[in-house]
Every structure is written in C-alpha cells, then in structure tokens.
Amino acid sequence: MSTSTISLDQLIAWLSRFRDLVTEKQSYLTELDSAIGDADHGSNMVRGMNAVVEKIGAEPATAADALLKSVGMTLVTSVGGASGPLYGTLFLRMGVNAGPVAELDAAALGAALRAGLEGVVARGKAEAGDKTMFDAIAPALDAWDAAVADGADVAAAASVALAAAEKGRDATEPLVARKGRASYLGERSAGHIDPGATSSTLLFQALVDTVSS
Amino acid sequence: MIGIVVVSHSPALAQAAVDLALEMVGETPPPIAIAAGAGDGIIGTDAVKVAAAIDEVANGEGVLVFMDLGSAVLSSTMATEFMTTTDEVRLTDAPFVEGLIAAIVLANAGASLDEVDREARAAMGAKQSQLADQGGAPDAVDAPAAETPAADAPAADAVSADPTEVTAEAPLVNPDGLHARPASLIVQALAGVDAKLTITDVTAGKGPVSGNSLIGIMSLGAAKDHVLKFTATGGSAQEAVDTLVAMTGEGFGELAS
Questions:
Q1: Are B18 and B49 in contact (CB under 8 A)?
Q2: Is the pLDDT at B234 greater than 90, yes or no?
Q3: Which of B38, B70, B77 sits opposite A77 (nearest CB)?
Q4: Which residues of A touch B37 (CB under 8 A)?
C-alpha cells in the first residue's frame, strides 16, 4: 500500500483506529481526567468516536472535506464535554482546508492538521505550556512540517509527528494547568499528564498504525 | 423583548434556574430557550443545540446567552458560527443564577440588549452588598451595583435645580423587606415611564439607587419599617412617585393574608 498519499478509505481507517485506541485507553484517559478534571474524558471520547464511526459508516463521504466536516459535527453533538467543540473544531477546520479531494499528500494533510490546530487555538485560547491538547499537537505538526520539507511521505511524517506528540504529552506532567477544568486546581494540577494531550497523541498513533500497516 | 438563551451542562439545572427567574415576572415572559445536556441525556453541552436555541428566541431585538462553565462557553462561541439569525448575539459573563434573574426582569420590562447585559453582569452586587453588611465579604463593600446607580443620582445642587423633581417618602410594610419580588415589580412598574427615579433607604442611610436596577434596589437590603424615599425627575415624575408610594403602601401585593 502506498504511503505517499492518504486516500479517503485510509482517512476512514484512521478514524476507526482512533476509535479503537480511545476505547482501549478509555480507563486510562478517565483516570488522568479524574486526577485533574471531571473524570469523563475517556467516556466522552469513546462515545464521540463511536458516533463518528457509526455516522461515516451510514453515510459514506465521497470527498475528504465532507468526511472531515461530518466527523467534526458528530463530535460537537455527541461528546458533551469541552473535547466536543475542541475536537469538533479540529476536524471541521481540517475539512475546510482539505477541500473536495479524494486523497491528500503529506503536505496537504499537514496543512489540514495545522488549520485544525489553529481552529482549536482560536476556540480554546490555549498557548504552549497551558497543559492542553495543544502541547501534543503543536510539536507534532512542527515535526511533521520539518519532515515534509525534507521530502517525507505520509508514513514518515506521521512517525516523527507521533514521537514529537509523545514527548509533548509527557512534558505536560509537571505543568500547572491554565485552561479547562484542570485550571481550577491551580498548583495541584502539576504532577499529572494532561488527558487531552494524551488523547491527541492517540490521533497520531492511529495515523501511524493506519499508514504503516 | 430581547431573547434569552440558557446554556448548561445539566437540563435540570437550566430548567430550575429559569423557573426561579420566571417567578419574578408575569404572564408574558421574554422569549427564553434552554440548551442543556448533550446527546441522549448526557451531562454536557452541544453547540448545535445552542445555535438552535439562539435561532428560536431571536426576534430582531438581540439575544443574551447565559452559560454555566467550561464547555458551555466553548459550545456557545462555536454556536455563533452555526446560528442563522442576524440578530446581535452576546455571550455574557454574568453570574448564572443572579444574572439570569436580573436579565429576565429587565428584559420583560422591555430593556435593550445593552441594558439587560449590563444589569446582569452587575448582578453579584446585591449579594456582595448583603454579605458586606454582615461583615462576610469586606472586600465587596464597593460592589458595582451599589455604585453604579449612585453615580446616576443627581448631586444635591442639581436636584433642587430640576423643576420637575418630585419627592415622597413611605415606610416599608413588607415583613421580608424589599426583596427580589417587590424589587422586580418596581422595575416593571417604571418600564416605559418618562421619569428617572431613585430610591433611598432613609432609615439605613443607603442609596440612592436607580429604580430601573433590580440589583441596585436589592442591594439596599431595605428591611420592614425602613422609610423609603422616592425621588423622580422627568415628564411623568409625579406619576412615578405616586405609583411607588401606592405600591409600597400596599406592601407590593404581599399583604393579602
């Protein structure tokens, strides 16, 4: 299977794999969220991604923009917590950026993810070091762009992005949260890995699993 | 009337807050819609539901959106991208319960989006002033709601200079004092009346506060037997003062039993 581009079927496989990973890690995500939040991140993400997989199975999209927008809207209406509007915005903006295409190369997928991240930032006003999903996705996309500039394909870019996301995720542990429910805890939020950064890292894990298989 | 949208993680919380606020107004409340919960009975918020609620109450006068916390704010900002109305929609940082009550009363009296939002955002003032009286919140002595109406009050010189000025005093007979319900009746009685009226608790030496401000009136914390002074200027000043003296004498309809 070619990994120089990602097809519509692979995007769907990616989302399905993301669903499987959040399901596998549901109790871990909830455990992280119970330390610094309201203990619903695992169940919220599983519910949202189950709804996504069901929706895109029932109404097969014929282009990347339609697929990603449908994913975003489904998350907005099914998640309930802050990850609904945040992940929802990520996918909606990705869709707008991707346009009505049937496949994306590494540069185009990177640009779509970047547009998604910018949407998340506009929505949640998060900055680097606030202990949020931004702290995993932003370094991942920086690594992605650098790899693409060196000629990487989707699989290679996804692989370095995952490594950067994991590093960014782990670096949230000592941080004091400045956004979201965890920010109510102030100093007490330090010493725990951020659940949003953890689920965001799974997004890149799912991509690696999909395009490398 | 402006439209009001109440966004909460919990449908029960939103409904209870709205029910509480509606006790303050009569038969024809302003358009109110609730957007609470997500999916099937899940505690959470849903931007699509919020957008639908905004569209439901929009009627050309503007929409004020109250939110509890966290994702309610994110979902509401996102909803402003999904809604179809061209009405001005404002997400207010007013306190959820106090703000909603102040807003419903003032919206019902026909106030503009700006006025309702301002009053709602000052709505912590009554509680702050009440607790400050009891030494409970010393930092809040200068609560905004207590200040703002006072700033509107004419200085002594200006008062005597206005030929339309009318003043009258009346003792408060309500056993529970000038609490939220009578305060709301005052705001509604003055809605649309061509008069600028202030209320002073002469006994406690508090005020003057604007008769158009629910929170300002409540911040007086006027108790039974306190003497209220009503001072009004404007074309219908006499009518406004007479109305309030009459309402005060009748105990704001609370002396039926």
A1: no
A2: yes
A3: B38
A4: 80
Q: Do B57 and B159 belong to one domain?
A: no
**pLDDT tens column, A141-188:** 999 999 999 999 999 999 999 999 999 999 999 999 998 888 888 889
The CA distance from B36 to the nearest CA of chain A, in Å, is: 10
A1-57 confidence digits (pLDDT tens):
446 899 999 999 999 999 999 999 999 999 999 988 888 999 999 999 999 999 999
Collapsed DSSP state (helix, strand, coil) of residue A180: coil
The phi and psi torsions of B4 (rounded to 5 degrees) equal -125, 130
Query: Do B7 and B117 belong together in one domain?
Result: yes
Residue B173 sits in which domain range?
A: 140-253
CATH code of B78's domain: 3.40.50.510
Chain A residues with CB-CB distance to B38 below 8 A: 77-80, 84
pLDDT tens digits for B61-108? 999 999 999 899 999 999 999 999 999 999 999 999 999 999 998 898
Distance from CA of A200 to the nearest CA of B (A): 18
Taking the CA of residue B164 and the nearest CA in chain A, the distance in Å comes to 52
CB atoms within 10 A of CB A24: 12
More confident residue, A157 or B110: A157
Spatial separation of the C-alpha atoms in residues A192 and A40, rounded to whole Å: 16
**Beta pairing, strands B89-91 & B196-201:** unpaired
Residues B54 and B107 in one domain: yes
End-to-end Cα distance, chain B: 34
Number of domains chain B contains: 2
Q: What is the CATH number for B222?
A: 3.30.1340.10
Alpha carbon of residue B216 to chain centroid: 9
Residue B22 inside a domain? The answer is yes
- Identify all chain A residues contacting B48, using CB atoms and an 8 Å cutoff: 73, 76-77
The rounded distance, in Å, linking the Cα atoms of B252 and B257 is: 13
Local confidence band at B255 (pLDDT 50, 70, 90 cut-offs): confident
Closest by CA position to B114, among listed B90, B146, B150, B96: B90
Note the ipTM here. Answer: 0.86
- Selected residue of B40, B49, B73, B75 to mutate for chain A interface (largest A Cβ count, 10 A): B75
Better-scored residue on pLDDT, B160 or B228: B228
Domains located in chain A, CATH noted: 5-212 (1.25.40.340)
User: What one-letter code names the amino acid at A4?
Assistant: S
* Residue pLDDT, tens place only, B140-192: 444 444 444 444 444 444 445 688 899 999 999 999 899 888 998 999 899 88
- Domain presence at residue B134: no
Asked if the Cβ–Cβ distance from A77 to B39 is below 8 Å, we say yes
pLDDT at B179: 86
